[in-house]
Design a protein that fits this description.
The complex is a heterodimer of chains A (615) and B (295). Chain A has 615 residues and is of the alpha+beta class. Chain A has 18 helices and 23 strands. Chain A starts with a helix and ends in a 16-residue tail after the last strand. Chain B is an all-alpha fold and 295 residues long. Chain B contains 12 helices and no strands. The chains are: A alpha+beta (615), B mainly alpha (295).
């Protein structure tokens, strides 16, 4: 009996030792190890970046990390819509020569890289103009496997020659120089109105040479930058940042950030006025491709704090679609924002495949065009919208997306209207039969949703008599593998989404510019001399009615040549916990907003009291 | 004349064979017969799917998104409007195809290798067989499958190869043990004495005497293969181009949030039914073919 009592007592003592007398700390006030008083913000993304090296920041996932670990010369204003650029690392706007060919950009003094063993003594040094020059050169060094060179290719004097001569970093590029410690000069071969936009992308983020040389390929997992956060750990499931305590002090000026009290006051962003970001100690981004996992993590209440509303939950959560409003019960618990994505989903034919695109035999090439047009006619955009986006997406013809000013709402919708009879007729008239139709390999990343995209596509093709066994799924283990297959021109049809790098239709028109062919951004490998001529003409023009007309002519060419099955812009609906002070947005700015996020203690609401829903 | 002693079996009395006795016992095993009937039902569904008699429209979109149960769509439709019933029936064909191919190959392979190992027990041949079985058993199954699937890239039979290469070892061990027992019996000694070559002894005289083990192993392996196929397809390592219950269950992950469970329920129920029936049949066969019980 004594032994039993002793055992029970020992057990109680052990349990008492395990218990926290203060009770569990609120999640936002504890880090991942449970350390109290650490303010943590937990975000999530639906894919993991394959590299954190800025030269490979080719997608929104990588940009979310790169733009928070590194600095860019320019950035997009946090709250201004439509999007507006602002100087970031740049100390004001550049001096631009009257012929628009020379840009002189001054950078801020006293900006420091984070401490890292790559630096002498492990202490981060000051960021200088030469660092930017070095970083942009890296995009033209094949050893880095860069993915962003297409942005500046043929535009900056001497940069292409520098690459051709072997990418020697000690050799000066006439069009890309550091005039002094804080002044960068960029000389263009021809006007490039989007230049400053490209300097807000993760591709142009500033990397210290010491780190690039110290870590080599490992820089892709070990960022060393001057951004608001530094990466503490990174793997395929999560990246954890800590606040960069050496980050420059720049108090927020909401007016300068484009704050509109009428539409944005509910977010509580007035709380950050006059304070210097970042506002959280820890930033955790979980990579979870499964909607249900992200959703459950959000609903649980103490895990991720922001999510998109899955299409399956739209009806349950929304009181109205337009404008997007939450049902009262949810409105009391969450904040919501919505908007059309700055981008689109679409499919392009790879014109380098002789079965579908260019062919040495002119007659076959003519029949191939009929084949592509028939596939476009049978593609059911409305079904895709209903199945996957609950009808909230916007289906539009061509490649100029609805969020840019050049979008033409009057454009004929024939190319996005399903016409099975027309498709069958087109095939018949051009001699296509079930026997001679080519095998179509449809590439997708692994996962159930991509697989169902394929099934939907195949079923639609079967409606026009395409044999089931001639539409084949090729799945890649990761999104990165699929991307490589696109870049290496290994798939006859490319199914993808494109997020605008900057708010200009040029960014989608360049997707079909001949010289941007694989491994560039022109996955279609479309080569139309007239299209290229118009693109080159428009590319050096400032926004004007004339440029708009050129854009629209090019758009029509893509539709007429049946190069792409396009397109649909998704509606994003963001939902976040009400103690989070933020206006989440993954479009264009792709992660810039994270530095402005603040987290209040659990139970508090960022929403001003007069805007709290009744009840 | 001496009369036959009462209580002793007459030398000339007809003796029931093991197979006949087993069949007799099986006929009286109601659970086993029920299992057999259900398996035959599934088999009919599978054969019909293979021959295109039914479920031919499994890939087509024949309804609206998440259509309800109706006369046209017995189990409703999925997220893109495909008929869940047709997909489930077509998947029965996939299950049987995988089950049969894997079971026959794995059991066949296990029988041959196990018999060779058993016949040459305590020699270097047996050492190699034991080492091979030990190595393969030591590799976790799903790791093995992932490695083989990766190595064989897009081969639609990567899953089959992976399963066969791991499933045969169980049969191999059982047959090896049985053969070690059989090789000491008189009929094998007699065959040796008259100069029958070892290969002929193994295949003509010994292996037929392990059929009762092989038959039970076939049913067990069949069930294991079906279950593994479903899990592998769910994980994206199984069926590449086609339909299976595993893919349907994986598809259902897109539907939970919206409160639709038809894919999950139908695929799981059919899988459960087949596995349960096969297990009942396997149990009955095991009882019927167990030489001790038959004796």
């Amino acid at each position: 009996m004594v032994v039993v009592r002793a055992a029970v007592l020992a057990l109680l003592l052990v349990l008492a030792g395990c218990a926290d007398p203060a009770g569990p700390a609120p999640r936002e006030a504890a880090d991942l190890d449970g350390n109290a008083s650490i303010k943590t913000f937990r975000y999530s993304l639906d894919q993991a970046p394959s590299s954190l090296d800025p030269v490979q920041a080719a997608n929104v996932y990588a940009n979310h990390v790169v733009l928070n670990a590194y600095d860019t010369l320019f950035a997009y204003k946090y709250l201004a819509r439509p999007y507006q650029l602002k100087p970031n690392l740049a100390d004001g706007w550049p001096e631009i020569s009257p012929d628009l060919l020379v840009y002189r950009i001054r950078i801020k003094h006293g900006v420091r890289f984070q401490d890292d063993p790559a630096f002498a003594g492990g202490k981060g040094r000051e960021l200088v103009a030469a660092d930017f020059v070095y970083s942009l050169k890296r995009q033209f060094d094949p050893k880095n496997r860069p993915q962003g060179a297409w942005l500046w290719q043929g535009r900056i004097a001497g940069l292409d020659d520098w690459k051709a001569a072997g990418s020697d970093y000690d050799r000066e590029v006439p069009g890309l120089r550091a005039l002094d410690r804080y002044t960068i000069e960029i000389r263009l071969l021809r006007p490039f109105p989007q230049l400053l936009d490209t300097l807000a992308l993760g591709f142009s983020a500033v990397v210290p040479r010491e780190a690039a040389e110290h870590y080599g390929r490992e820089l892709g997992t070990h960022p060393v930058g001057s951004g608001p956060f530094r990466v503490v750990s990174y793997d395929s499931s999560r990246v954890v940042f800590a606040r960069n305590t050496a980050f420059r002090q720049e108090p927020v000026d909401l007016q300068a950030e484009g704050y509109d009290p009428a539409t944005q006051r509910y977010t509580g962003v007035e709380r950050i006025q006059g304070r210097s970001p970042p506002f959280v100690d820890r930033l955790v981004i979980d990579f979870a491709s499964d909607d249900a996992s992200r959703w459950n993590s959000f609903i649980k209440g103490n895990e991720i704090q922001v999510t998109g509303v899955p299409a399956e939950k739209v009806d349950e959560f929304l009181e109205s679609y337009d404008p997007v409003q939450l049902k009262p019960d949810y409105a009391r618990r969450y904040q919501v924002a919505s908007g059309l994505e700055a981008g689109f989903v679409f499919e392009t034919f790879n014109m380098d495949f002789p079965e579908f695109g260019y062919n040495p035999d002119p007659e076959r090439e003519r029949r191939n065009k009929a084949l592509r047009c028939a596939i476009i006619k049978t593609f059911d955009w409305e079904a895709r919208n209903q199945s996957w986006y609950f009808g909230l997406g916007t289906v539009f013809p061509g490649i100029i997306v609805p969020v840019v000013p050049e979008f033409d709402p009057q454009l004929s919708r024939t190319s996005v209207t399903r016409d099975v009879a027309g498709a069958r007729r087109l095939l018949r008239e051009n001699g296509w039969t079930a026997e001679n139709l080519p095998v179509l390999v449809y590439g997708q990343s692994a996962g159930v949703k991509p697989r169902m995209f394929f099934e939907q596509f195949r079923a639609q093709l079967m409606d026009i008599g395409w044999p089931q066994e001639k539409v084949v799924l090729k799945q890649y283990a990761t999104f990165g593998d699929l991307g490589r297959a696109w870049k290496e021109s290994r798939l006859p049809i490319v199914s993808k989404g494109w997020g605008l790098d900057y708010p200009d239709a040029e960014n989608t028109l360049q997707l079909f510019y001949g010289p941007n062919g694989s491994p560039g951004s022109n996955d279609a490998n479309y080569r139309n001399p007239e299209y290229d001529r118009l693109y080159e003409k428009a590319a050096v023009m400032l926004p004007s009615p004339e440029r708009r007309a050129l854009y629209r002519r090019m758009n029509q060419m893509i539709i007429d040549d049946c190069v792409a099955i396009t397109g649909l812009s998704r509606k994003r609906i963001y939902l976040w916990h009400k103690n989070v002070v933020a206006l989440p947005d993954r479009e264009i700015v792709g992660g810039f907003f994270l530095r402005y996020v603040d987290v209040l203690p659990e139970g508090e609401s960022a929403r001003p009291a007069d805007l709290e829903p009744a009840g | 004349m001496n009369a036959a002693q009462p209580g002793l079996p007459a030398a000339t009395a007809p003796r029931a064979s093991l197979w006949r006795t087993a069949l007799y016992k099986l006929r009286r095993d109601r659970a086993g017969l029920l299992g057999l009937a259900v398996v035959v039902l599934y088999l009919v569904a599978a054969v019909g799917a293979w021959c295109g008699w039914w479920a031919g429209d499994w890939a087509l979109i024949t309804g609206t998104k998440w259509g309800p149960v109706s006369a046209q769509h017995w189990f409703g439709t999925n997220i893109i409007g495909q008929d869940i019933f047709q997909r489930a029936i077509y998947s029965t064909g996939t299950a049987f195809q995988v089950g049969l191919v894997v079971a026959v190959l794995a059991v066949g392979m296990g029988a041959v290798i196990g018999a060779v190992g058993g016949f040459f027990a305590a020699t270097w041949i047996d050492e190699i067989v034991l080492w091979l079985m030990g190595v393969l058993d030591a590799i976790p199954f799903y790791l093995m499958v992932a490695a083989i699937a990766f190595a064989l890239a897009d081969n639609p039979y990567a899953m089959h190869v992976a399963m066969v290469s791991t499933f045969w070892t169980t049969t191999g061990r059982l047959v090896r043990g049985e053969v070690i027992k059989l090789r000491g019996l008189e009929f094998v000694e007699a065959a040796r004495a008259i100069g029958v070559p070892p290969v002929a002894i193994i295949f003509r005289h010994i292996l037929p005497n392990t059929f009762h083990i092989l038959l039970v192993q076939l049913t067990l392996c069949f069930v294991d293969a079906i279950k593994a196929e479903v899990v592998l397809s769910f994980l994206g390592l199984g069926v590449k181009d086609g339909m299976s219950w595993g893919l349907m269950i994986s598809e259902s992950t897109l539907e939970f949030l919206a409160g639709h469970f038809n894919n999950l329920i139908v695929a799981s129920a059919l899988l459960f039914g087949l596995v349960f029936a096969f297990n009942m049949l396997a149990d009955a066969l095991q009882d019927a073919l167990d030489p001790k019980q038959v004796a």
